[in-house]
Amino acid sequence: MNTNSYALTNMILLPETRFPAGIDYAITVEGKRITAVGLVQDLPESMPTVDLQGQILTPGFIDLQLNGCGGVLFNTDITINTLDVMHQANLKSGCTTFLPTLITASDEDIKQAVGVVRKYRAMHPERVPGIHLEGPYLNPNRRGIHPEEQVRTPDQPMIDWLCEQADVISKITLAPEMCPKGVIRQLCDAGIVISVGHTLATCEQVKAAEEEGATFATHLHNAMTPLTSREPGAVGAVFDSQTMYAGIIADGFHLSWENLRIAQRLLQERLVLVTDATPPVGLDSAEGSTFDFCGQTVHYSQGKCSNADGTLGGSALSMVEAVQNSIAQGIARDTAIDMATRNAACAMGIEQDYGQIAVGQFANFVVLNGDLNWKATISGGVHGNI
Asked: Would you kindly state where each structural domain of the chain is located, as residue ranges?
């Protein structure tokens, strides 16, 4: 059933902090947008309804760092078809909105990826707000799985070009110590979210990047200088900031659960769940498989993606698993849901369209059962076979 106008009824809305329990809510959808959030008793008698049978409804999850899933990798096949496959795989885990993430690549591949995402965004704005370029302006000594031969310092003509594409480049991850003064400011002034990552920056250098406009940190704790007693490093700079957001990979491999809880207590609504997902996510059977990640063979085994020397090559995490893991490790249910929805939208300045159940938002939702297991996804108002 895919009607153009309908109301969702008989559900538990989360976060409960914004939707108190015990109320018969009704959410009206017309086309791709939410047009009303009210009570069942106020619905017109002629309005078609979709009965959610008492299950949980939350905003659709938002992933700001998605390399690939469903057997595909954006770096390997920079096409609209790849983004379609990623979207279909995302639907199985409640992720309705994502930033396709291109890790360190040539200028030619970057330009191709920006063009592909621009076309896809025009077709499906509810799915993809823009692209995340993770690199190439990284510290080679903190490059992780990124191809060494492509890691480089910025050149002005390419920076100018990136600024011209700010309508579709949502985020760039870079190492501030590798960028001449003024580069971060220029990119931020163009409207691109600058994220600190893959860096050996000192606390002072990260604070200088924040002064220039950087507002995010990529996969907190990973590939960055740690917090120590006399040099707070990049991690300490983020914790000391009053404005910087941070993405965090809650898979049990990228960081300890203690560090997840500490980051949440310190950053509060500025902490964002991301997956850093790769091809195994969304496949029915991928145990023991391998995939090529920019020239390196990455092995997937027992939930972990790593190359031959043990370097992590993305993750096998889905968004619903990130939420479930966070709750299992002591983070409040509503808080974990915000970390996967509203926080991400606010970090990117797109909260008017994504991340909440409110009038004017895209009609992106996740249906969960009482154990917070995925049951269904509504993307751009299309609710399929609920």
From this structure: 5-59+359-378, 61-348
Q: Which residue has the tokens 């538990």?
A: 12
CATH 3.20.20.140 fits 61-348, yes or no: yes
Is the per-residue pLDDT at 286 higher than 90? no
| 3-class DSSP string for the chain | CCCCEEEEEEEEECCCCCCCCCCCEEEEEECCEEEEEEEHHHCCCCCCEEEEEEEEEEECEEEEEECEECCEECCCCCCHHHHHHHHHHHHHHCEEEEEEEEECCCHHHHHHHHHHHHHHHHHCCCCCCCEEEECCCCCHHHCCCCCHHHCCCCCHHHHHHHHHCCCCEEEEEECHHHCCCCHHHHHHHCCCEEEECCCCCCHHHHHHHHHHCCCEECCCCCCCCCCCCCCCHHHHHHHHCCCCEEEEECCCCCCCHHHHHHHHHHHHHHEEEECCECCCCCCCCCCCCEEEECCEEEEEECCEEECCCCCECCECCCHHHHHHHHHHCCCCHHHHHHHHCHHHHHHHCCCCCCCCCCCCCECCEEEECCCCCEEEEEECCECCCC
| Rounded Cα gap, residues 29 and 8, in angstroms | 8
Q: pLDDT tens digit string along 8-18?
A: 999 999 999 99
Q: Does domain 5-59+359-378 have CATH number 2.30.40.10?
A: yes
One-letter-per-residue 3-state SS of 60-88: CEEEEEECEECCEECCCCCCHHHHHHHHH
Catalytic residues: 276
Nearest CA to 85 out of 274, 282, 297 is that of 282
Percent of the chain scoring above 90 in pLDDT: 95
Amino acid at 20: P
Q: How far apart are the first and last CA of the chain?
A: 9
CB atoms near residue 213 (< 10 Å): 16
Question: How far apart (Å, rounded) are the C-alpha atoms in residues 175 and 166?
Answer: 19
Partners of residue 131 on adjacent β-strands: 169
- Angle formed by the axes of helices 80-90 and 107-123, to 10°? 60
Measuring CA to CA, which residue among 79, 80, 121 is closest to residue 99?
Answer: 121
Query: Residues 241-246: what's their mean pLDDT?
Result: 98
